[in-house]
Amino acid sequence: MSTTVKGVIAREKNAPVELVDVVVPDPGPHDVIVRIQACGVCHTDLAYRDGGIGDNFPYLLGHEASGIVETVGAEVSHVAVGDFVVLNWRAVCGECRACRKGQPQYCFATFNASEPMTLADGTELEAALGIGAFIEKTVVHEGQCTKVNPEADPAAAGLLGCGIMAGLGAAVNTGEIRRGESVAVIGCGGVGMAAVAGAKLAGATTIIAIDVSDEKLARAREFGATHVINSASLPPAPDATGEDQPVVKAVHEILGGIGTDVVVDAVGVPATYRQAFYIRDLAGRVVLVGVPTPGMELNLPLPDVFGRGGSLKSAWYGDCLPERDFPLYTDLYLQGRFPLADFIDERISIDAVEEAFATMKSGKVLRSVVEL
């Protein structure tokens, strides 16, 4: 029998979100109903609200979440009632061409719930990233649930569901940072800060954080940055290209005239990507984890692309495998070896999501977390 609960929706483009009644259907054979305990407020949710991802309104927002499995479908075997889980949007299928090549982190056919949630009048809701977790209970495919240590703070564990895993994975999985390497991270929001923390965890010895905010750079030091650069304070050089860019020069000065082994671009605009391309050392790795908006184009001299060698990568979800990574980083957090809870700046109620979007846009928080 379906259940009616309260959830946060974006009814139309750029309109304030609403807390409304949402009908959660009975789970299909491989679906589960999860009682949400906490859900982070992510930039992706704001992008849904503002029409930056699609126009299939209304959207049920929220996806960076943890909770307790409450009901399971008849053929569910992956989780059981009472399990504490972090939700994910990469429930690998095991059958697509990526999975068959042994690259499930790129799965092209991930699973979602078999039936949509709806408004009280029957209007179907598009769940953000196939989850929809600004809600008291949600329905997802069993593969979207990853069991983790129930001793973890739900607000902290849930952050692994998206942004923190994206930045952490960009450093550890995509960038493949090794002990003793040097790393630069451009952009110190939640994702960039997670990349800084990931670089420290991986054993990087020089970690350079780059941002336009002294406040964020101070926090980056707390997460492991050994050096910081406020790019807004550098002398302007509007015509500078290549290694003459002020940010590039500043990084190379720190390293005695060479570039870093790895650069993580957590901003995702052409200007920062060009900086990242030239900040890295010869044969270095560039990882793009900041999400570009439609219409952006990149111009780089092709001889430089060839001559500098190395690799240019994009990190999708931090190239994570939830079943491998979520339990691992939850345990490292509980052991005091990864500062997952330090990303939480405020804990809010479910009716404060719109205000949290405004706070996010102001750059004053790494994460606001809805607690239910």
UniProtKB/TrEMBL annotation:
Cofactor(s), names only, from the UniProt record: Zn(2+)
Molecular function terms, GO-annotated: mycothiol-dependent formaldehyde dehydrogenase activity; S-(hydroxymethyl)glutathione dehydrogenase [NAD(P)+] activity; zinc ion binding
EC number: 1.1.1.306
PROSITE patterns membership: ADH_ZINC
Any Gene Ontology biological process: formaldehyde catabolic process
Keyword annotations of the record: Metal-binding, NAD, Oxidoreductase, Zinc
Pfam families tied to this protein: ADH_N, ADH_zinc_N
Domain Enoyl reductase (ER): 7-370
Cellular component GO terms, alphabetical: cytosol
PANTHER family: ALCOHOL DEHYDROGENASE, ALCOHOL DEHYDROGENASE CLASS-3
Family: Belongs to the zinc-containing alcohol dehydrogenase family.
Entry-linked NCBIfam families: mycoS_dep_FDH (TIGR03451)
Protein name (database record): S-(Hydroxymethyl)mycothiol dehydrogenase
Organism whose genome encodes this protein: Corynebacterium provencense
